[in-house]
Amino acid sequence: MILEARDLTFRYPRRGSPPILEGAGFSLRSGERLGLSAPSGLGKTTLCKLLAGLEAPERGQILLDGIPLSRYRGFCPVQLLWQHPDAAVDPLLRLRATLEEAGPVDPAVLEGLGIRESWLERYPAELSGGELQRICIARALRPGLRFLLCDEISAMLDLIGQAQIWQFLLDQAQARGLGLLVVSHDDALLEQVCGRAIGWDALMS
Amino acid sequence: MRTWDRRRSTLLLLIAAGAALLAVSVAGGLLTEQAMATDFSRRDLAPCWGYPFGTDWMGRDMLARTLAGLSLSIRIGVLTAGISAAVALILGTVCAISGGWADAAVSWVIDLVMGIPHILLIILISIACGRGLWGVTAGVALSHWTSLARVVRGEVLQLHQAPYLRMARKLGVSQGKLLRLHLLPHLLPQLLAGLILQFPHAILHEASVTFLGFGLSPEQPAIGIVLEESMGYLALGRWWLALFPGLSLVLVVALFALLGERARLLLSPASAQG
Amino acid sequence: MTPILTAESLSVSFTRYGRGLSRVELPGIRDLSLTADPGQVTAVVGSSGSGKSLLAHAVLGILPRNSRMEGTLLYDGAPLSPRRAAALRGREIVLVPQGAGCLDPMMQVGPQIRRGRRGPEVRTQCRQALERYGLGPETETLYPFQLSGGMARRVLIASAVMEGPRLVVADEPTPGLDARAAGRLLSHFRELADQGAGVLFITHDLELALTVAHKVVVLYAGQTVEEVPAEGFRTEKGLAHPYSQALWRAMPRNGFQVLPGLQPEGLDLPEGCAFAPRCPGRRPECGRGQIPYIETDGGRARCLFPGEVSVS
Predict the structure, then answer these.
(1) Is residue C211 in some structural domain?
(2) Which domain holds residue C148?
């Protein structure tokens, strides 16, 4: 499969604000791991949201195998992992409900991510960012998943936690042939995780 | 270690207030017969041991009349607050989810209803529905849903922007499950607190409409009727006819307000008391 | 030189509501020891749940009411009671919090930094503090929503250091900043230390901490496991505790090696060394009693068999 973005333009709906993205193009194949390194404030998070279909572009298209992403019903094959996982889970829901909102989760995934059974009985405010991130990853790793967009996902984690979840994600990506977009400001991390890394300017041209 | 436990005391107060209101409501329901029984051998008694609230010019027991009146008021209050909360939930959610012309139409109706003074609207609806119990209920229910509907609509609109809700949609969660899992739990505390805080409004409005003569018929022992009748006797020095029923009404209203306040404290996650 | 801050066997626990009305007592910090010297940046590093934010709260005397603190906490050689902390905080002991969320959204920056005080000398002081962090006088009239993330953090520092504090506590001041912005921010902390203040830099980001810190205190499950000069992290051999070594090996540039398992939490803390269940060099002795500190090269570590662990 191939995830493509063509001529993406986006601006926040504030009068006179300059576009965050203008004419951006992008492509990612299954099994490919692409690193994106750029300073903050340039619109990396916006790009990820657009690619995952969470925001609609002002102009341009996001295509999955040539079909617009918005036409896919049910579980979206492109999933986004947020930098701040606390925003991506419902604060009033116990985490078991959050984890299984799209259906039951493979116990091997829970095991691989080191998710403790006791976390699932709690509310998001009672877990740390790193623990919530593990749950968000488990929630996204459904059978229908093809592309995973990782927006600074290990910024909240300590070094060992970071190594743990990346090791697990890389194994999963390998086994399932996932395409990964990895956004990080940590070049050493990108080098470890990704086959190829590009800068922001390369993406825009 | 703190010995004082806020969550526990809140819960206790909540239960106590609820029990008191329930007791009044049940007792009043059982006393309706007595409230109407006249006995001219005991006319105009001031409060005493046998009749703590005294008796009126027809020898009716004022305690029984007060309780029966409050009971009727509470039942009308529960009914009307329930109806208006349901209307608010449905219209508010429809508004926010469908958007477009449905939203515009409902918003316009909300503005319209809010623009008319409550008491006037209640009187008009009550008369149109033939007064009596149903007139008052319809009047109070149909005039009180607006502010809550507006709150619900705003809340749903805001929730729709929340990242976790957008994520849930991309995870393929169905619309019904979305409503049940993510919308209702967020709306429930607002709705419940709004509902309980609406009781006192409803009760006061019922009493005032009845007092003004546009509500319940004079033979029913409603608190508004009791108060209205007692007005004529105040000048004759029969203070107990107005004082006790009036105080009881204030007490019931205060209890409901307390109940609403406590329920909101207990339900709101922001005050999760650590 | 007297350390500006000393914690010895500090523990903080708190009671919390469980399901319904039940309450449980949870240990937050169990046995934390550290010293912070004036003129130095002391980094306190631990993963989430290691109790590092509680340390900041304890130093500032702002622990929640349902908590209980035991052990010794000395500021400038004298015990730091919550009352003394209350008298000193905002003047001698200051906190640099996480981000713009800690600024009052309805108040302009100027009055917020001045904290209600008036007078020409306060105004100049405020202007100087802003200027020091590259913020012009026009910043005073801005509201927090008009600040960028980096600017908001500089405002927070300016606000904290206006009165020349002796101890600066920074609790995770960098998340959401890219490497360059974070580096700039950290150089300000280094600058404060160079001027004689003690800086306690609390973070989960060891790599970032190493760019400015003189000393690193490694926390694990609410305990200090190692106190080591920052140079110790240059090589794996400079570290004595197997957890610190595992941190070093997990850095992307040092091999990105995974240590399996999770930090124990709350009530299921093991007997003896908390790290023992994950330790590759664990021996039966590790599971019993208190683990004492041993002196290491320029620091100390809480391990019975330091430096003996070898990883294949």
Answers:
(1) yes
(2) 107-162
Specify the pairing of strand C23-36 against strand C294-296. Answer: unpaired
Can you give the pTM of this predicted structure? 0.82
> DSSP state, B61?
B
Would B116 be classed as within a structural domain? yes
Residue C102 lies in a domain: no
Instruction: Tell me, yes or no, if A116 comes closer than 8 A to chain C by beta carbon.
Output: yes
The tens digit of pLDDT for each residue in C87-125 reads 998 889 999 887 667 888 888 888 888 887 888 888 898
Q: Give contacts of A155 with chain C, Cβ < 8 Å.
A: 175-176
Q: What is the pLDDT of residues C225-269, one digit of tens each?
A: 999 999 999 888 889 999 999 999 999 999 899 999 888 876 677
Instruction: For residue B231, give the CATH number of its domain.
Output: 1.10.3720.10
Q: Confidence class of residue C68 from pLDDT cuts 50, 70 and 90?
A: confident
Whole-number pLDDT of residue C176: 66
B171 touches chain C (CB under 8 A): no
Instruction: Compare CB distances from B170 to A54, A92, A98 and report the shortest one's residue.
Output: A54
Pairwise CB contact (< 8 Å): A90 & B164: yes
**B107 exposure class (CB count in 10 Å sphere: 0-12, 13-18, 19+):** middle
pLDDT at A176: 94
User: Of C147, C162, C177, which one is at a domain's C-terminal end?
Assistant: C162
Cβ proximity of C42 and C214 under 8 Å:
yes
Residue B274: per-residue pLDDT: 33
Asked if A157 is an interface residue toward chain C (Cβ–Cβ < 8 A), one would say yes
> Residues C41, C112: one domain?
no
- CB under 8 Å to A141, separation ≥6 — which residues? A105, A106, A109, A172
Beta bridge partners of residue A68, listed in sequence order: A63
Q: Are B215 and B131 in contact, with CB atoms under 8 Å apart? A: yes
Instruction: Please report whether residue B177 resides in a domain.
Output: yes
Domain boundary residue, one of C162, C182, C202: C162
* Residues from chain A contacting residue B177 (CB–CB below 8 Å): 101
- pLDDT band for B3, please (50, 70, 90 cuts): very low
Q: State pLDDT tens for residues B216-260.
A: 877 777 787 888 888 888 777 788 888 888 898 888 888 888 887
State the smallest CA–CA distance between residue C236 and chain A in angstroms: 15
Chain C residues touching residue A114 (CB < 8 angstroms)? 261-262
**Closest approach of B136 to chain A, Cα-based (Å):** 38
Residue B41 domain-assigned? no
- Number of other CB atoms surrounding residue C281 within 10 Å: 17
Q: Looking at the 3D structure of chain C, how many domains does it have?
A: 2
Position C81 in a domain: yes
Is the dihedral angle over the CA atoms B87, B92, B93, B98 positive or is it negative?
A: positive
